[in-house]
Amino acid sequence: MRNLTPDQMPSSVPVRPHLFPPGLIPMLRERVDDSVPCLAGISDALLSELLTAVFFASLETHEGAYYPVRIAFAGTQTADVILPEGDAQDATPMLLYRWSTVKFEHRRAFAVPELVKLGVVTRSERMYAKVEAGEAGLYLAGLAREGSNDAADPYIKVLAQSPGCLTILRGENRLLEYTHGYIDAAGEDVILARGAVRRALESCAKNAGFGEDVILDYLNTVRSVVREMATHGRGGILVVSPDAQPRLPAGASYETRDDGTMGQLLQFLDGGRGSPAKTNIGSRGVRGAAQLRRFLRGAFVNEAERIVTQLGGFTAMDGATVLDCALGLRGFGVVLPVAREIEVLEALDLDGESVSPYELSTRGTRHRAAATYADTYAGSVVFIASHDGPVSCALRNEGSERVKIWQVGKGFT
Asked: Is the pLDDT of residue 287 over 70?
């Protein structure tokens, strides 16, 4: 068969132009404006340099190993510590912070080799190379650790988790996904973005008795466990059940009793957000109580992170890891039944209103088992990670006849 020139290609074939990282700037400007502190006074040229350097750094290895590139862009903000809004520097324990920086004694050049080397020490989910902007341009100021940062983030985060792919975030808000020259139209984070999967998880949280104030913590916990599952490289299945006592197949490999730890942590976070101004204590007591609550919250968040790592480790075993509606561990290595015939649809939007056929025959046993469980137990949210990292989510809502599968947004590998 002869090769066709571009002019000879059928007109029905869509042609998408490749974008180089500077081409992302207009879209980024549309989604965030100069009111974001780190972008105040920052030119398009500097942003182009920022994204281009991270992109090229993502193509490199360090001493034969690949490490993701993670940067926090602070703009002209040079403070070593960003505190919770409304707190004075001298009144807040240093364990309470939104961002904390290990400052370099001397500025380092913002250059691809530096970003590649720092990838070794920014592997942690909360650690970033901090980039600031001065009169001479961009430079590396230190290492920034993200703390309790549930308000509007003053920084922009740029992650290159795999070669040629960029994820741009503000806080947990995913601004852009860029993959091998294209904007990834399927890059929505179905866990956090408002749609069918998020609503199903919110329903699970409410079944556990959690209030509205803890929903975001709940969603972020699920998201973190899914990320752990995606990054260990073995693939896996994670079930979040709407029930307090999920039904497991007879003879489940490792059935466990929930020790309640994660539920207790989430309950604490839920109870810690009421306004202290409604209490009868004085203003100094109110401020002290709020600071103590945030201090304890930081400690509880650290404990939650340890539990997330453990849960992610369970998913590395063959079989499914099953959590109840309070995210308590109910079983791991669980061998799920596999239906011979099951019709599955691929959701093309967040609500699953636009769909197309999904060929399970092109997938392995793991996907078929996950779809079977989702079909059998309506309302269960079932995440599936492949060996090479891509993550899917299977769900059948009550009243729906078919299982739908979403491609979970990038940024989990």
From this structure: no
